[in-house]
Design brief:
The structure is a homotetramer of 333-residue chains.
Chain A lengths: L1 E5 L3 H12 L4 E6 L3 H11 L2 E3 L2 H5 L6 E4 L6 H10 L3 E4 L7 H11 L6 E3 L7 H11 L6 E9 L6 H6 L3 H4 L2 H11 L4 E9 L4 H5 L5 E7 L5 E7 L7 E8 L2 E5 L7 E4 L3 E2 L2 E2 L5 H4 L1 H17 L7 H20 L3 E4 L2
Parallel strand pairs in A: 1-2, 1-4, 2-3, 4-5, 5-6, 7-10
Antiparallel strand pairs in A: 7-11, 8-9, 8-16, 9-10, 11-12
């Protein structure tokens, strides 16, 4: 499968490295609005560099595109790629504006190309083991879902300014996780509380760094999401699914299995991972594998456009709730 | 210190057993509205049985009373005991009706007797270690507090009917925990979501069994409380305090240190405790020790009447939020 | 059951405290060769103080004796108590000299009184859970048993000098644990290695502080025991039973359930217990309960004289192996 | 760096896959005495297939060889490769016969090529973290080292028959681990006990499946190694280093971070890895990286020929001790 990658930044480079290492994938193009950046990455990994998406989209030998460019370019690239008949793997979020997302959905409908949103956590072996356990009935009826996502340190202010805010940038993954694990449909009540405690600069930009959301699904199942932009002990990623039959958790992974005993403490593990790239390193590889499989075999993709839209629906509701102080009801369909 | 215990039920009997085992305490009276119940307990543990509180309150050799009778008798007994100049240890909640609590507070003000509310978790060695770590600055500025309280199985419908509801009966301990750990004062925003998922009978009584609350303290610190009336793996009690300097947790205690490895799993621990009595067994002893110390030495009691009132304030707000679907702001003073 | 306790030192006082707290037990006598010590303890806990064992042994109202005096007095007191028809709970070891142990066994045979050796670990809830799991077939055929016993700090030189050496003083508990868990009979091969690494003073007294023993039971099951006189992280007590069906472990218990996360580490638990008295606090109570039950109901006592002798047999063999550098074969009967 | 791999079996294929994935490595030849096997692997991974080592050794563009052929071919291939001036990475053990190992050492001395023995565990991130902690002084003076190595299931009888026995085939890694962690030199006392408990067929072949070794290093440090050919819960790999300053452990790694809570148990993790290939998957990649670095930069290789010989020395001594029942003293130099 021949790939074109849009965006030669950190995320794009990760996908490019995985394409290169994957025997079934071939890197055809690296496209970036900054030509030199595309060229530099292509030099290291191969592929043809360009700043013009059309070069790749018009090449009939290109089978698939990965959209890892800035969020505000996603919709246009998705539409262009769909029109060109390419399979699409697009980083989250689709867009920060639901109107544009719906416009995009309408625009690509007729082309019917495979499209997948980059909710890579769904491919993490631990989260996946939890999903399988839950689907296999191990917790019985789901009553409570709890998710913790804490970054090791806040991104720079320049990133925050364009991020769309904590609910859309950071918590979007957790909204997808909640929807994926619960399989929820229908109406959901959303309430959020958030503070600016970590970095005053984030507050000055009108954003928060400590945010929590409560969801009440149609089934009565309650879901709690807890995000922070800074955890000094490393990248904290936990999931807990509790129900009538028990509980299954996705516990934090440590970088190594070392345990220390001193005169002060026992069984101390090392710090958690320094960033999501390291924590989810293998996960991005598995995501690519899945995408290739799904496109090659025509499987229905689970993390599809509608999934991306539903996660955005919850992020919008959470932002609104934070603004008004009131709960918001949305319909997941 | 000579004690009178009001209430010869399960809770009263626990206090009576601890009084008997404590070298500095002596059981003088067991009072229960059902005389036979008082007599039966007194026969096993000593003390004089009666169904008349006045018998004990008029005895000048009685130093202290423990109020472990039904909740709706607490206020009257507190007032009577205060008037009689006895030190008071009263089980939570003070009352289900804030008006009566305030009336009680006004009524006992002039007598100035030592009064302590039975928030026994404050004396648990693990929770206390967390409190000391937090007060010692180990987590830095507190940003997030999370509390889980799940009972092994729901109480009988007859208990639910008189319990005051999940927020007042079960979550009251967690509200106190949140206030104790945070040291919060001033305004707090309270939002709750709750469902009836465990036992339909509880729903028919107008109560819930799966409840979650979000608090936002004046400092911006967010707090989440997660209660359930049923956890098949036992009595689940967890606390997590997260801040700028790290995290300190009160993890679940297992009944034994056994670990199992089979062809299916590894490092499996045994079930958690079967009830709060076993989990907090030692805690009740330490609570009594503290009470005796505080009364004997005239220490200011931390878990005092005002603490009981503040916890009730949050329970009232949570119930109101559940009813209206809107957040409620209360002032902790 | 009316008790006489021989020895008013630390161990005797522990038993005395437990007798006092036990509703079925009554403290009749405290006997110590130093009369003042007996008197001081009796003053606090009750009972009649004396320096003459005969005073208690001649009292027909005394049902049982606990022998917690220095090791070299055990045999004489056991014989005297047996002759007086008292039930006996004797601290380990019976004696450091196998000849005297066998003489004692012969001397008390005819009196047929209940006799129990103070291997209190058999009553620890965690070790007991392991024993039940093993007996219940959870590990299948036992192939490997591993035991770790490390003290927080070495005892004073004065204690070491009279202790009988590390194999007899410290490892005797582990030998009993190995025999209890395995149910081994017949021939066993014993090999030991030991060093003086912790405290040079211990070496000057001809003793070791770091000792390991390998046992090969008749069944082919291998057993490893690992003792140290000093672990800076606290009192380390672990047992592992491995077999054809899996593994069951008795893991270390922490003093509290606190967990810490800092910029350096995660999931750090607190130090282990500071001494065996605290680690096995409840265990001594359960031991006494069992003894009372067994004597009252005529149960066959498991930790009996023969158990004490078998543990001593292994300690003797380990000491011999350490001296000669060769393995030693002994017959457990 | 252009590689020739000798041996197209499971181990050879693992190295070949890693060479293919490594940007600094290129697969030049796949050599196997069974030509078809070499051809089949070369077809999948590239490289030229042959059954003649000389083809590769005479090719001046080949920089390095990996010896992953049967143990009895190692010495001849090492000598031939050294003579041809190739860098060598040889799987353990060098040979089962110390005479041949010494002959080999003498024969290759003059060629002075880089040679590394495949003790891949030294590159495992957890074991390495333990090594760094120990070298950094975290445990103070080392007093005790303990190693557990248990395979998920025994190899087939055909493998056992040629394996050299449990001490040489399985425990050789643990001997190297003990020597690496301790940095021991000089005399060491070796004692072993072993049984045939897992598979009678292994016993019929004169081998054991449950083996334990005690080592006493010159420093007085004691070391225990515990091997089994079968652990139903998966591949059990643990290391513990204990000393005057505390303890550092290399704990088992689980395949995922899932934790289960049911009505019977809590905090249950999943099975351990199914084999050493999966457990040490990343480790083999890091080993190759290190080898390439060391050869390219002329670093002194730590896991060198002498290391391989010292591990063999201990395996020989352990086998001898098992045969005679007596301890054996060897000199590590």
């Amino acid at each position: 499968m021949r790939f074109c990658v849009f965006g030669a930044g950190r995320m794009g480079e990760r996908h490019i490295a995985n394409i290169t290492a994957n025997k079934r994938a071939e890197l055809a193009y690296v496209i970036d609005s900054v030509h030199d950046r595309a060229a530099s990455v292509a030099e290291r990994f191969g592929g043809r560099a360009s700043d013009a998406p059309s070069v790749a989209l018009e090449d009939p030998t290109v089978d698939a595109v990965i959209v890892a460019s800035p969020t505000d370019t996603h919709v246009d690239l998705i539409i262009a790629a769909a029109r060109a008949g390419k399979a699409i793997l697009c980083e989250k979020p689709i867009d920060l504006d639901m109107t544009r997302v719906e416009m995009c959905q309408a625009a690509i409908g007729e082309y019917n190309v495979p499209i997948m949103i980059g909710f890579q956590r769904r491919f993490d072996v631990t989260h996946l083991a939890v999903k399988h356990a839950v689907d296999g009935g191990e917790v019985g009826r789901i009553e409570v879902i709890k998710i913790v996502s804490r970054d090791p340190q806040p991104p720079p202010a320049s990133y925050i300014a364009k991020s769309g805010g904590q609910f859309h940038d950071q918590m979007i993954h957790d909204f997808d996780m909640a929807l994926w694990l619960s399989g929820a449909t229908g109406k959901v009540t959303v309430f959020s509380m958030a503070s600016n405690l970590v970095d005053p600069e984030i507050g000055r930009l009108g954003d928060t760094d400590t945010a929590q959301v409560l969801l009440r699904f149609h089934s009565g199942c309650l879901c709690h999401i807890d995000c922070s932009r800074r955890a000094v002990y490393g990248y904290d990623q936990r999931v807990e699914v509790f129900g009538s039959g028990g509980m299954v958790c996705s516990a934090n992974l440590n970088r190594t299995g070392i345990e220390r005993y001193t005169s002060q403490l026992t069984v101390a593990r090392d710090r958690l991972y320094d960033d999501f790239m390291k924590r989810y390193s293998q996960t991005y590889e598995l995501e690519l594998e899945y995408f290739i499989d799904a496109v090659a075999n025509g499987y229905a993709i689970e993390a599809n456009f509608a999934s991306g839209k539903r996660a955005l629906l919850l992020a919008d509701a959470a932002r609104q709730s934070h603004g008004t102080g009131a709960a918001v009801v949305v319909d997941l369909g």
